[in-house]
Amino acid sequence: MAFIKRFFPSLSYLDPASEQAFRHYIVESTRHTMQRLVWVCVALLLVFNFSDMLLGDNWFSLNNLTRLAIVVILLSYLPFTRHLNADSYLQGWLLVCAIVILLLTVTSYAAAQYFGQLGEGGTMIVAIALTAIPIFNVQQKILLWLLLYASLAFLKYCTQTDTGWTLFYLAITILLCFSWQRQLDILLRSQFKAVRLETEKAETDQLTGLLNRRSFEQRLQEKLKALTPDQQLSLGLLDIDFFKRYNDHYGHLDGDLVLVHISRLLSQDPALLVVRFGGEEFILVEQHPRGAVPTLLNLPQQLFEQAHPHITSPFGVVTASIGVVTLSYPATHASSGELMHLADTLLYRAKEQGRNQAQHQYLG
């Protein structure tokens, strides 16, 4: 099995989650390319029809009618693709391509009957054209190539069609296209992996591994848009109490270790969006059922119970204060600046009232 996987980069180059993300990325980034490719195919099919007309064929020949059927299918399906998600988009085009191959087989049969023999060029162009489709990986293209080869084999052995050397040249073309497509699959995934790694570096705080301030705005907007009527969103701004005193007494190295320790505590809940805002401040975003108490309000107590020594603090241990603002659906009217300002005001209030506590307010 491992030996077979080596031939298919989509099974071996990335982990399953990354491969799924790559498929979605390649679909979304090539939608316009697919549209242009469809229009090019439509134009070529119509050009072939007109050229056959000039050579004495008529509009109602099997050859021309089959090409027109392909044009109708492509142009009818194209508008529906705008509203499909990545998986449905991919599966839909795979089905359409299979239907087009079967119709092209009929075209090949009609051409062979008209000219007395099937030429090699047409089927080789189809095989190469399949390679140009950007959304399919090598396994999916192998299925389409095999369908094309099987269709021509059917014409050769189940009809009176003279295919000449078509099957031989088509097999060579498919092998060459397979080799090229496999290298392309590796190259595209390598590029995706490198871009993703650089993006993660740019969006991640090097010390704590948390998201940094740069990535906060986009993630918050995604959560605001994803909010449903039965949910609320809470944003908290957390600050470590007397952290300057800690650094001055224990040293900056121990201060960094405290930041890492608190980051791990905050990241225990995978449902929380945790961002290092800067210094000893953290932003936390939580989606929770409507009317439920935000778990962000429990963070000061959880940190206090960790009992990490801090002898220059009046509490004797490392503590934190947090300001939490909660808003309900619809949340698209709220700006990140407004939420952060209110959370900062609540955080300041928590510090004024003795620290090691949470201040909470509902917005609207």
TrEMBL record:
Keyword field contains Hydrolase: no
Ranges that cross the membrane: 37-56, 62-80, 92-112, 163-180
SUPFAM superfamilies in alphabetical order: Nucleotide cyclase
Keyword annotations from UniProtKB, A to Z: Membrane, Transmembrane, Transmembrane helix
Keyword Transmembrane: yes
Catalytic activity: 2 GTP = 3',3'-c-di-GMP + 2 diphosphate
Residue ranges of every copy of the GGDEF domain listed in the record: 231-363
A Pfam family reported for this protein in Swiss-Prot or TrEMBL: GGDEF
Gene3D superfamilies noted in UniProt: 3.30.70.270
EC number: 2.7.7.65
PROSITE patterns for the chain: GGDEF
InterPro entries: Diguanylate_Cyclase, GGDEF_dom, Nucleotide_cyclase, Rev_trsase/Diguanyl_cyclase
Catalytic EC class: transferase
Matches recorded under PANTHER family: DIGUANYLATE CYCLASE DGCM-RELATED (PTHR45138:SF9), REGULATORY COMPONENTS OF SENSORY TRANSDUCTION SYSTEM (PTHR45138)
Protein name, as recorded: diguanylate cyclase
Organism the protein comes from: Alishewanella tabrizica
